[in-house]
Amino acid sequence: MALLIFLLLLAFSAVTADEDAFIGVNIGTDLSDMPHPTQVVALLKAQNIRHVRLYDADRGMLVALANTGIQVVVSVPNDQILGIGQSNSTAANWVSRNIVAHYPATNITAICVGSDVLTTLPNAARLLVNALKYIQSALVSSNLDRQVKVSTPLSSSLILDPFPPSQAFFNKTWNPILAPMLSFLQSTNSYLMLNVYPYYDYVQSDGTIPLDYALFKPLLPNQEAVDSNTLVHYTNVFDATVDAAYFAMAFLNFTNLPVIITETGWPSKGDSNEPDASLENANTYNSNLIRHVLNKTGTPKHPGMAVSTYIYELYNEDMKTGPLSEKNWGLFDANGDPVYILHLTGSGSVLANDTTNQTYCTAKDGSDPKMLQAALDWACGPGKVDCSALLQGKPCYEPDNVIAHATYAFDTYYHQMGKSPEACNFNGVAAITTTDPSHGTCVFPGSLGRNGTMVNITAPSMNSSSSDSSHYMINGSGVLMSILTVIRLVIWGVIFV
């Protein structure tokens, strides 16, 4: 009997691992033309976003979210923590006005009491635990404590010596607050909320963190980071940071608190001194993040355990202060147009924001340039792709490099062949993507412009020849096809046909 009780207690206290992981989105409002709440909710529905976090408890948003089923996390703004942390009645009034008045029509699941309080508002830190307890007490009085969790997002910068994760610990200056805070979270069956930004970890690492490691890109075994104490291999910054949080909590004797990531993302644009804030990197990070979370990969310390995550953020916020990157973390602009189309083909519908269901064929990064050139030659020759747009002075000549020209030729051939998966191979140097490779005046086949007009192409007759592209090779300098290229075309014709 004693053994049975022990096992039951162990099961009850274990970090929850059987809940499905989810991807949510933060909704910031620092836009000069903030969409109306009904427009925001329409976008959420169109993108099948079922989890959102608000930075306040805006009544308009809470009303618009009513009866949608979308799970909502609301926030006590940092500037209200001092008042709530000093007054139980103030906390009760806040809960009555912002939670009770909207629940259950609006599916509120959690309350963030402030955000990054210890690192951005240290004068309110001493009242943070009080504020948590007072908000919780108000929920208990309203019989909502089981439906609505209470926590506070912490910056991952509070974790010192984060690698190897097994040596991580919280900044001891804050232990007098962190210990009772973690005790509160444990006693209320809540979770640790953590803001994780591999972009900043990478930028501030002075080259010690490889870009691919920050972006979730596949690594060779000898490129993986190894925890020298546990011999566990890490393939990305995100997992290492989450595990560092688990170890930091264990250092304070808390081993049964799950972690939820309340903020993470990557900027899509930056100033001249922020070269890695780019569309491609933002797309890569968020696409890989979504796959990683929804696959319930977990972390090396807790494999298979849900690490639910909120992406920062829904909209680009043009009114943010600071460098250009601060304004460009959004997945959409104020009109609801995607800043980029996530690489999510076959990964479910959440945030697969290619509402046109368009796919494209592009050259793979890192491909052998000679292989790309040979494939380009074949596409513009035997493949019967009209490559005239790649000539000097034409819309797709720039950028003048083989990967850009090959992408245009590959995608045109892919669409000529009815978007058959077999038509986007080119001996392994091409891949299908949902990201529209069009740029500037170079509009790719199948692309939808802002006016919603699709660019169509017609497959050429297989017994006809192009007056432009069959007579020359399109390469970096636009020179005529050489005898060697003709030989190469014959060889690649055998491979592709």
TrEMBL record:
Gene3D superfamilies: 1.20.58.1040, Glycosidases
Domain X8 residues, every copy: 359-444
InterPro entries, per the entry: GH, Glyco_hydro_17, Glyco_hydro_17_plant, X8
Signal peptide: 1-17
A GO term from the CC aspect: plasma membrane
Keywords: Cell membrane, Disulfide bond, Glycoprotein, Glycosidase, GPI-anchor, Hydrolase, Lipoprotein, Membrane, Plant defense, Signal, Transmembrane, Transmembrane helix
Keyword Nucleotidyltransferase found: no
Predominant location category: membrane
Family the UniProt entry places it in: Belongs to the glycosyl hydrolase 17 family.
Catalytic activity entry: Hydrolysis of (1->3)-beta-D-glucosidic linkages in (1->3)-beta-D-glucans
Organism field: Acer yangbiense
A GO term, aspect molecular function: glucan endo-1,3-beta-D-glucosidase activity
E.C. number(s) listed in UniProt: 3.2.1.39
Database matches in PANTHER family: GLUCAN ENDO-1,3-BETA-GLUCOSIDASE BG1-RELATED-RELATED (PTHR32227)
Protein name, UniProt field: glucan endo-1,3-beta-D-glucosidase
Localization (cell): Cell membrane
Ribosomal protein as UniProt keyword: no
Domain of life: Eukaryota
Membrane spanning residue stretches: 472-496
GO biological process per UniProt: carbohydrate metabolic process; defense response
Membrane topology of this protein: Lipid-anchor; GPI-anchor
